[in-house]
Amino acid sequence: MIVGVPREIYPKERRVALVPAAIPNLKKAGMEIYIEANAGLAAGYPNKEYEEKGAKIVAERAEIFRTADIIVQFLCHGANDKTGSQDLALLRKGQVLIGFLRPLGTVKTLQEIAERGVTSFAVELMPRTTRAQSMDVLSSMATICGYKAVLVAAETLPRMFPMLTTAAGTIAPARVLIIGAGVAGLQAIAAARRLGAVASAYDMRPASKEQVQSLGGRFVELAIEAKDAQDASGYAKAQDESFYQKQRELLGNVIAESDVVITAAVIPGKKSPVLVTKEMVARMRPGSVIVDLAAERGGNCELTKPDEITVVKGVTIIGEYNLAGTVPYHASQMFARNISAFLLHLVKDGKLALNLQDEIMRETLVTRDGEVVNAKVREFFSMPALQTAPAGGAD
Ligand SMILES: NC(=O)c1ccc[n+]([C@@H]2O[C@H](COP(=O)([O-])OP(=O)(O)OC[C@H]3O[C@@H](n4cnc5c(N)ncnc54)[C@H](O)[C@@H]3O)[C@@H](O)[C@H]2O)c1
After folding, report:
1. Alpha carbon of residue 382 to chain centroid
2. 204 lines ligand 1 (CB under 6 A)
3. 91 phi and psi, to 5 degrees?
């Protein structure tokens, strides 16, 4: 069983899907690892380190696709909406593809992968269960985004974060508000606190209050309650517009008093709710900073421009998408750890052991035998349920 790791080709992408430290475990399980030459270089992993751990360096990208049984990539076609289609012609029938596929983005890219006869798994669809925790790539990337959002805000803010008492007077600490205290939001609270800011956070899931407080953050209570705030998997559920309207009214004052607002309120598979309107931005002090971690899904701030930095009335709004990619060493390390756990789950005795009774495999499998087979994905795109759905059994 050959696992191939091509170099990422999304413009300026520096991450790599497997790091040298991940290789010995995979080899022990009967996998051979082929790495495209210099695939890890920009993340801080030179070819030599891969070779020392027993991987083979392959000069030609096409050779990786020609020889590998399983391709692991960060941004596969779909998630790489700029250059990902270049790989389509290289994929072959029966090959397995694992990585970010953006399964709820556009169905066309998934169909194109299906038409190549590829069995693909989208890491975005990993279930939120204890069993799958070690494979949860989204949480890994959210951890980095939350941390990095604080650094980017601190760099942009014309003020310092910590409180200082100096001969030149007292410097008040920066006030950082985090909206959406999921994995990214909680990491942002921790990072903001480490830099000495006063951190507050708001989330509509009541369960997050304790987590915010345990990190030394103040929990912002709003006098509204979300209906069924979270689903069985721990994801937030979409609310009606009157809820969001009320939320905006109540959040307005808290936002106006903040120097930094980091928004990370997303609803899986849906456009992000607008929680910061242009009127709210106008009430913020000039120099204030908003980092919108929901930018890729439309943004939590009305003024966010996708993947851009804008300044409106002195307030900087950062809508950059790929903050996790700006920490390529650790992003690659975490991704590799998650993907290795997934590979060890999928491959038994050197063969793909596809078992659709297994929740992890069933939920992440997107294409197989020329079709988009994932039930959630089909429902999302209003495709009819498959008559002969591969309901179970080993492959
Ligand atoms: N394997 C596991 O068990 C596992 C893995 C990852 C996360 N989780 C848990 O799932 C939860 C969500 O984590 P996430 O970071 O993936 O979530 P997410 O990225 O889906 O959403 C981020 C946060 O935004 C919040 N949000 C959405 N709409 C909002 C609104 N209108 N107002 C305020 N807040 C809003 C959500 O409640 C969530 O906390 C957390 O409790 C996390 O610990 C569990």
Report:
1. 25
2. yes
3. -70, 145
Instruction: Please state the atom number of ligand 1 nearest to the C-alpha of residue 184.
Output: 15
> 10 Å Cβ neighbour count for 286?
10
Using one digit for the tens of pLDDT, what is the confidence trace for 175-198?
999 999 999 999 999 999 999 999
Q: Which helix (H) or strand (E) holds 57?
A: strand 56-58
Q: Token pair for residue 360?
A: 């992890």
Catalytic residue among 193, 194, 218, 235: 235
DSSP letters of 341-372?
Answer: HHHHHHEETTEE--BTTSHHHHHHEEEETTEE
Please identify, by atom number, the ligand 1 atom nearest to the C-alpha of residue 133. 1
Cα separation, 183 vs 185, in Å, equals 6
Mean pLDDT of the chain: 94
- Contact, 375 vs 368, CB < 8 A? no
pTM of the entire predicted model: 0.93
What's the average model confidence in pLDDT over 372-380?
95
- Which of 266, 293, 302, 364 for a ligand 1 pocket mutation test, highest count of atoms within 8 Å of Cβ? 266
Bridge partners of 394, per DSSP, are: 355
Burial of 223 (0-12, 13-18, 19+ CB in 10 A): exposed
DSSP state letter for 84 = G
DSSP letter at 43 equals G
Instruction: Say if ligand 1 is within 6 A of residue 310 CB.
Output: no
128 is annotated as an active-site residue: yes
Reported as a single tens digit per residue, the pLDDT across 125-168 is 999 899 999 999 999 999 999 999 999 999 999 999 999 999 99
266 lines ligand 1 (CB under 6 A): yes
Look at residue 388 in the predicted model and tell me its pLDDT: 60
* CA 268 to ligand 1 center in whole angstroms: 9
